[in-house]
Amino acid sequence: MTVTMLTNALLVSTAGATEPPVVEPAAADGALSLLWLVIALPALGAAVLLLAGRRSDSWGHLLGTATVAGSFLVSLVSFIALLGRDEGDRSVGQHLWTWFEVGLDGRVFSADLALLYDPLSALFLLLITGVGALIHVYSIGYMALDPRRRRFFGYLNLFIAAMLVLVLSDGYLGLFLGWEGVGLASYLLIGFFQHKPSAAAAAKKAFVVNRVGDVGMVLALALIIATFGTVSFAGISAASSQVGEGTLTAIGFLLLLAACGKSAQVPLQSWLLDAMEGPTPVSALIHAATMVTAGVYLVVRSNFIFENAEIAQTGVVVVGTVTLLWGAVIGCAKDDIKKVLAGSTMSQIGYMMLAAGLGVAGYAYAIFHLLTHGFFKANMFLGAGSVMHGMNDEVDMRRYGALRAAMPITFATFALGYLAIIGFPGFSGFWSKDRIIETALAENWVVGVAALIGAGVTAFYMTRLMLMTFFGEKRWADEVHPHESPKVMTTPLIVLAALSVVGGVLILGNWLKDWLTPVVGKAEPHDLPVPVIVITIAITLVVAVGVALAWFLVGRREVPRTAPTDVSFVTRAARADLYGDAVNEGLFMRPGQRLTRGLGTFDHSVVDGTVRGTAGTFMASSSLFRRMQNGYVRSYALSLLAGALLVMVALLVVTIA
Amino acid sequence: MNGAWLTVLMAVPLVGAAVLAALPRRVAPVVAKQVALGVSLVTLVLAAVIGFAYDPGAGYQFSVELDWIPAFGAHFALGLDGIGLALVLMTVILTPVVILASWNDGDQGRWSVHSFFAWMLALEGLAIGVFAATDVFLFYVLFEATLIPIYFLIGGFGGPQRAAAAMKFLIYSLVGGLVMLAAVIGLYVVSADSEFGSTYLLAELQQVPIDEGVGRWLFLGFFIAFAIKAPMFPVHTWLPDAAAQGTSGTSVLLVSILDKIGTFGMIRFCLTLFPEASQWATPVIVVLALISIVYGALLAIGQDSIPRLIAYTSISHFGFIVLGIFVMNSYGATGATLYMFNHGLSTAALFLVTGYLIRRRGSASISDFGGVEKVAPVMAGILLFAGLSSLSLPGLSPFVSEFLVLVGAWQYAPWVAIVAVSGIVLAALYILLMYQRTMTGPTRPEVLGMRDLGVREVVALAPVLLLILGLGLYPKPLLSVIDPAVEDTLVYVDGVSPDSPDEAVTGTETDEEGDQ
């Protein structure tokens, strides 16, 4: 009974929502006919860099950066072209080629590789290629001393190309192609320092956990094909209102499973913290700004499924809410600067998922937060990389302290990102997170309060990070000489910091909401229980409490150089990633290992043993047979001949009879 | 004239094998190798010509039909449909690849280098015959004959336990062959009473009405032989031993080409000759296929020997192929046929590149490697690529086939697809665990001096890798050949599941009808 009550309490009301819009792309023309170049440039870059070998070592990083910069230009031109079109005409398709086709005439299932450029994918293009280009530039400096830098850029280019396939595809199969492509790039880049066993293990873990999510994707595709006979967004959105809610709910939950894997949402969250084994620019690009948000993209893109599948939508909300608290709690207990940021990423994507699960009211805010998060989190990850760069790759914040003087630009840009993420009034995160919390409160107060608490926890762990890294006493060893990073690294930081500050302009005059209306539908204005200003003040107060708490617990005390061990149960749990790995190991890994070992024995002694036993019985009972086992090939050949003769004789006998 | 093409295609490698066998032993081994490579390339060109001349959707082509043993209606009858053509193409592509990759692998055999390559060519010729045979008796004879070359290849040129492994392979295959022989004789008996008189021609047998009970017995005779060949759980244990003992080239010929005769036989003979019995047996076969998928994958994860690991992955993959065939819809059967081709490519790449690795280290044990990437990055890259194709990464050719099989399985029954899809997670584990343990981590002292791949080794693999990528993004040329032939085959099976179920809501016309 309590379960029912809980379900009722969580069920999100979408009553009165309009039908989700139908995707109807027009053929690409003019500047937009060059759309394919966005993908082709980085794909070509990856091919050249990975196949040319050492010959391209000296210029590989420049080519890799140039291709992504070129992609950004094409994205920008396309965006301007799209701006110039009428609102109802902002969906453009470009057919590349037919991937595969199966079936008889009239019942052909056709999987096309085709692009869909609309207001949603346009924003992603700018984010991916824009932030991507900045991170490429940064990596020129960050990876300068790595002998395999050219290969690193090859993998980064591969990632960009795959990510663009993901967001530009006009259907689920093409999306899945990009989906797995980014998974591969992520695998290669997490394991980039593959001589380190921990990096290799983390890479494999990321891939395998994502494959669990892929199970959902593949089954969703199978169900979609069985139901709709097509995988294109256009075909599905046109027909989804005629399909039963049960089927759509099943598709919704399967897509949610896929999204959980890619976006590190509970219960498939465990890989993201390990993924920090990758070089820091990778963490910024793939594991903060772009790839991990693909799950949010998937849900928003599938609005025509989720709008008619209320229970699945509730599932999205639950996953988002749990994860936003889960990641935030982990972020509070970590001493590794990258892991704090990773927990934070998980948590922020939880906010986006939550918003996406709220339906038409939340889609635009999910994407808004996705964009601002892309700016400020990439900024802070690169900032963390800059700190590590000056600190001999140290990641333990207990060995930082007072770094603001040694690296002023890194500090200043990081601080702007910090103000953005905690939602300091006026900064980008303030606008995007507030909108999500407001909408959540309006739709369902349980979820809204959880999101509100999450904002306080976020303020706590981010303030803790700032204090431990840039303030207080210096705690680094004498042989460490912190210094500012070169211009090639600080310039991207400055650009991203600026975007973190002003990113909120996207919502001025509800621009972003209106822009996305052709894709996700028009939201009814929601009724808030209290005036907006009250909520804004409440959020700001909660954030202030979080900051103050961090000040009292961390800022005013001396930070010990080794982590204290006499800590509460909660801290221990948070340090252990809330036992996510322990559960996986206990439930899957160890029983799995026992199973494979047991099956190995079974296969040898039972399956093979039965056959050997049967054969042995024959051999023992027949001396003739034993003589045939003499190991001489000629006698085996003889037995084959005898067999053939037997055939002839048998056939003749049958004929005569 | 047209009919001579297939005979010539089959004869060229067989004649080449005979020439190699007849070459005096004093002729330098390198000449034998060059002759073998040359012959296999000529065969490839011939097959390419046939492939271009082939008209998709026009049924059997290049047919030839000569009386062979009139007393019981056996013919020398060859012909290619899309399914056969795909497998013939796979055979002629992989044979030169294997010959070039195995350039030095016959040097320390029990018999001469000449015979090593002669047996390879013989196998190629016989395999072409098997895939093109349109007479059941001819098929049976060639089916059994393929055992001879592979027996000698394993028994003469393999590892320390090659004799035992070869024997095990032979006994399993002969038992399967014997069961099939009984069914072949049974077919003769059945046909003797029909309007055609005694005949072994496939096209005629397909029209012979077969009594339900008899049909089921005959079906079993064929199916058991094919299941041993494919191999399926629980008659699979010969394969890991054979793959572990044979040279990597032999393993390619065995797993990529020869084992396909099993699954090819299922679709060609089981479905079209005994449609009722096929339907009758489907539930059991689907379960066995699912067991093969999961069981093979789990065992692969637990292996320490690389070739045994690949052998178990193949058992898992064969499970997918059999599943696709027996869900009996065009997604499944088209996917399964494409799977046969793609599995041939990806397994060949895996066996050959790990073969290079194993030869350098003198050990096939995963635990003897570590950190090889550092010293041999090209080899590591190719191993990863081959592995990714084996785990069906989208963009590489095996994805399309595996995906189609899963879609077909879902249409048969969703729970079947749900069980089968676990294979994609397990595949990621067995491939990436192997890669992690051999290639990453600190470089072990024993592999420090390891050479990276040489030019010959890369050139041998390059065509396979290019095809895996090319057909991954554009499988249409192959599908357009396979698909019509599969549709023709499915016509035989009663109540073929429709491609799109009736409740499909798009597809314009069906839409309106569905609403009424």
Can you give a write-up of this model?
The complex is a heterodimer of chains A (657) and B (516). Chain A is built from 26 helices and three strands. Chain A has 657 residues and is mainly alpha-helical. In chain A, strand 2 and strand 3 (109-117) form a beta hairpin. Chain A is globular, with a radius of gyration of 29 Å. Mean pLDDT of chain A is 88; it is low at 1-17. Chain B is mainly alpha-helical and 516 residues long. Chain B has helices at 4-22, 29-53, 82-101, 113-132, 136-145, 147-157, 162-192, 202-205, 212-229, 238-245, 248-258, 260-273, 275-302, 306-326, 330-361, 372-375, 377-390, 397-412, 414-439, 455-473, 476-492, 509-515; strands spanning 61-69, 74-80. Chain B has a domain at 279-509. The termini of chain B are far apart. Chains A and B meet through strand 2, helix 6, helix 7, helix 8 and helix 24 of A and helix 5, helix 6, helix 7, helix 13 and helix 15 of B.
Concise summary:
By secondary structure, chain A is mainly alpha-helical. Chain A has 26 helices and three strands. Chain A is globular, with a radius of gyration of 29 Å.
The total count of helices of chain A amounts to 26
Give the total of beta strands of chain B.
Answer: 2
Mean pLDDT of chain B: 89
How can the largest sheet of chain A be summarized? Answer: 3 strands, mixed
What structural class do the secondary elements of chain A suggest?
Answer: mainly alpha
Mean pLDDT of chain A: 88
Distance between the termini of chain A: 77 Å
Strand content of chain B: under 5%
Binned strand content of chain A: under 5%
Sheet of most strands of chain B: 2 strands, antiparallel
Estimated helix fraction of chain A: 55-70%
- Helical fraction of chain B: over 70%
List low-pLDDT spans of chain A: 1-17
Shape of chain A: globular
Tags for this model:
heterodimer; A: 657 residues; mainly alpha; 3-stranded mixed β-sheet; 26 helices; globular; B: 516 residues; two-stranded antiparallel sheet; 3% strand; disordered C terminus
